[in-house]
Design brief:
alpha/beta; 26% strand; seven-stranded mixed sheet; 24% helix; 346 residues; six-stranded parallel sheet
Length: 346
């Protein structure tokens, strides 16, 4: 076992504090990674505060991890010491079910093993990226191409793949009109990626406060959802709407913006249930769907796509001592657009 410094929430809703954790010895197919940067995702806050249900404590959050390989197990074939790598939201799965065999490990029938707030196959709790090092099976490690800076790459491991996967699955591209709801950590990546795929991109945000940013990121149009005229003006417009917000929406209002056969895909996960009048989907053969991160193969595809198009996350680099303040700022939508922890400060 190796002892490393980390930041952990000792209990639900408790402030995160510096501590030490144990990392397992490197096994046959393991990769030891010196973590350089870790993104702060809204999911970290939901889990550290038990917004999504009972959680495991102490909790070391962080599933947007970028670093450098410092040791490999004897059976490792994909990586070598010195490689630039990333780890996303999961570190294992059953590897046998239909989903896993199809490269959709995120939908593993037995449940994937989360990078933190989960229990591994060895019965030990998993701890995430707010730490100096992590040991991960090579099958769940991603290669970060040289074209992306490590700090800007970290958020791609969740925010990037979470938006890339539905855009690809629902065929965003030339001739398609795509709307992104919310311009935060996920939304800003959705805009960059949809634009790079060739779609006509619209941002739907509560206000016009970030309009200039949205257009710079690649949006063609920007509308305020607080203005009722927006929903009248844009009725029946979009092929695909990707909602990145984790607050309950009036789903009927957003479904009204879709063309016939359009899809509203949710990647933000509100803590409360939402209601829906089914006539909102029946009229127009519309799809209300959800999407969760991506498989390992698709995540690598996303990283390569980003490198090829010069895409990284828009980040604000912080010291580990600022994590608790950063959480409050995320909740206040006061970040442009992803906090990333410099793990040298842990």
């Amino acid at each position: 076992m190796t002892t490393v410094a980390a930041y952990a929430a000792p209990a639900a809703k408790a402030p995160l504090e510096r501590t030490t954790i144990e990392r397992r010895e490197v096994r046959e197919h393991d990769v030891l990674i010196d973590i350089k940067f870790a993104g702060i995702c809204h999911s970290d806050i939901h889990q550290a505060r038990e917004g999504w249900g009972e959680a495991l404590f102490p909790m070391v959050p962080g599933h947007e991890i970028a670093g450098v390989v410092s040791e490999v197990g004897p059976g490792v074939t994909k990586f070598a010491v010195g490689d630039r790598v990333g780890v996303g939201c999961m570190v294992d799965s059953c590897r046998e079910c239909d989903a896993c065999l199809a490269g959709l490990e995120q939908y593993c029938a037995k449940g994937n093993v989360g990078t933190y707030n989960a229990v591994g196959k060895d019965g030990e709790p998993t701890y995430g990226g707010y730490s100096q090092k992590i040991v991960v099976d090579e099958a769940f490690v991603l290669r970060i191409p040289d074209g992306i800076a490590l700090d800007e790459a970290a958020p791609l491991l969740c925010a990037g793949i979470t938006t890339y996967s539905p855009l690809r699955h629902w065929n965003a591209g030339p001739g398609k009109k795509v709307a992104v709801v919310g311009l935060g950590g996920l939304g800003h990546m959705g805009v960059k990626l949809a634009h790079a795929m060739g779609a006509e991109v619209t941002v739907l945000s509560q206000s016009l406060r970030k309009r200039e940013d949205g257009l710079k990121l690649g949006a063609d149009h920007y509308y305020a959802t607080s203005d009722p005229a927006t929903f009248e003006r844009l009725a029946g417009t979009f092929d695909l709407i990707v909602s990145t917000v984790s607050a309950p929406l009036d789903l009927g209002a957003y479904l009204s913006l879709l063309k016939t056969d359009g899809a509203l895909v949710n990647v933000g996960a509100p803590e409360e249930p939402v209601s829906l009048n089914l006539f909102s989907v029946i009229g127009g053969r519309k799809t209300l769907a959800g999407s969760m991160i991506g498989g390992i193969r698709e995540t690598q595809e996303m990283l390569d796509f980003c490198a090829g198009h010069g895409i990284g996350a828009e980040i604000e680099l912080i010291a580990a001592s600022e994590i608790n303040d950063a959480y409050e700022r995320v909740l206040a939508s006061d970040v442009r657009y992803r906090f990333v922890i410099d793990t040298a400060t842990i």
